[in-house]
Amino acid sequence: MSLDINTKLLLVFSLFCFNVVFAGESGARRADLGMEGFEQHGRGLGLSHYKGRSSHLFNVKSFGARADGLTDDSKAFRAAWKKACQAAGEVDLVIPKGTYLLGPVKFAGPCTNVSKITVRVKGYLKATTNLSKYGYSAGWVEFKWVEGLILTGGGTFDGQGAKAWPYNRCPTNFNCKLLPTNVKFVGTNRTVVRSITSVNSKFFHMALVECKNFKGTKIKISAPADSPNTDGIHIERSSSVHFSRSLIGTGDDCISIGQGNSEVTITSISCGPGHGISVGSLGRYRKEGDVSGLVVRDCTITGTTNGIRIKTWANSPDRSAATNMTFENIHMNNVTNPIIIDQAYCPFASCTPMGTSQVKLSDIYFKKIKGTSSSAVAVTLECSKGIPCQDIYLEDVHLDLASGEKQATSTCKNVRAKYIGTQIPPPCA
């Protein structure tokens, strides 16, 4: 059958309209599914190639995570990490909104072909309360030997520590078994942690061990004031570390700087409740590394049992040093022991010292430390008799008693501090 020219043109136009309409519906369906739905429906195993800042996207739900708060999703998290770590280029591992019950999970590298791996935690992660599932000195969620890690997303790590704290023997037993840390980083390099929350850890909230080039910001950490050993951030044997603009309230140190650290900077931290910001404890073990290049600046400490504290054990088995440390522009609100050096540190009910601390403290600067003290003694400099402190500077210190009554006082042992500018309380005689 032959068709005239007008009929042929009409058929071509109809086919064109058909293709436009159905192509638009297909695109709209992809948009309705969203990135998560597109991944699940179109990619199967959770691998998605798309244009943008990442070349690969992995979603824990595509690996079987239920996110119901009851089912153990650990296996799905491990499977998603394994695929992500085996990918190449820039990688995103997504933990969508929902409640995930997890046992101990190790995200281990090296991820040989990955240039950057971003873990986006949008959900609420709950730790199992079965302590038999954790190893000694382990982390609950642990990142090991990873380069170029970014941990972000606004999600929460809930250690469910209240059920574990009764089993913590560390306040009374020198050789106690350590409970798991909420989030632990071991041997990582070029790490960024931003906009995450940690609550009710069984032990430390966050710990860094042998890490380099680590930046943490906009972190929220919370545990009751009476929760044992719930340090907010503990740093050990690490270098080039910077934490800033974070809120920390715990039952122990807001931040503790352990042995073997260098070039650590702490800025704009709000601390309280807790035990303040501490260096140490140092001098407990053999062959501890020195601490140097610490800067703590522009922080607010409120209602804590210590403010800025340096603590070292008596009876140190080996010599070590902590030097070149600056604490500047710190505001104290009703703080017990706002400035304290304690080289006879004993966290137990009683200790029987057999020797002096072998940790040498030198080149330490307290500048612009102001606010109120809840203790009559606002400045305590108790140094080691065996190795007295050297070059301790106090500049523009103004600490009034929170009660508004008589003036606070200072006490010193085995140190000749150097004073500059305002000194309230008055320097040691």
Automatic annotation (TrEMBL):
Active site: H275
Subcellular location per the Swiss-Prot or TrEMBL entry: Secreted, Cell wall
EC number: 3.2.1.15
Domain of life, source organism: Eukaryota
GO BP annotations listed: carbohydrate metabolic process; cell wall organization
GO molecular function, one term: polygalacturonase activity
Leader sequence segment: 1-23
Known catalytic reactions: (1,4-alpha-D-galacturonosyl)n+m + H2O = (1,4-alpha-D-galacturonosyl)n + (1,4-alpha-D-galacturonosyl)m
Keyword Secreted: yes
Cell wall biogenesis/degradation recorded as keyword: yes
Entry keywords, A to Z: Cell wall, Cell wall biogenesis/degradation, Glycosidase, Hydrolase, Secreted, Signal
Family per record: Belongs to the glycosyl hydrolase 28 family.
Annotated function: May function in the depolymerization of the pectin in its walls during pollen tube elongation, or in that of the pistil during pollination.
Protein name: Polygalacturonase
The species this protein was found in: Herrania umbratica
Lineage: Eukaryota, Viridiplantae, Streptophyta, Embryophyta, Tracheophyta
